[in-house]
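QA checklist item 7 of 12: single-chain prediction sanity check.
[x] sequence parsed
[x] length recorded as 101
[x] structure emitted
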Amino acid sequence: MRHLFLAIVAIVLAGPVPAAAALDCSRATSNAEKMVCSNGRLALAEERMAYAFRGAIRRGVDPSELMQSQRRWITEIRDACNEVECMLKAYEDRTAELENP
């Protein structure tokens, strides 16, 4: 598990990557993941949030706390959405949280 965490942090710190790297659509299993992969606006929102996530790490936010809050956001907020507008709002709110600690 520690190796996975370190790999994720290394990828996040590596720099700009396309949206596909933020969410591997070939492995999408949840309804939320499938929605992101099938909607351009959601894919862009995912990419923006990924950049904000990397920015938070670069600003010195504790990576383990950030990963925990991200997992919590995914399960409690993002995955609770069943429509695009709800998910867009969730991404917008999370991106703002990451950009403005």
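[x] summary fact logged: The CA atoms of residues 31 and 79 lie 8 Å apart.
[ ] second reviewer sign-off
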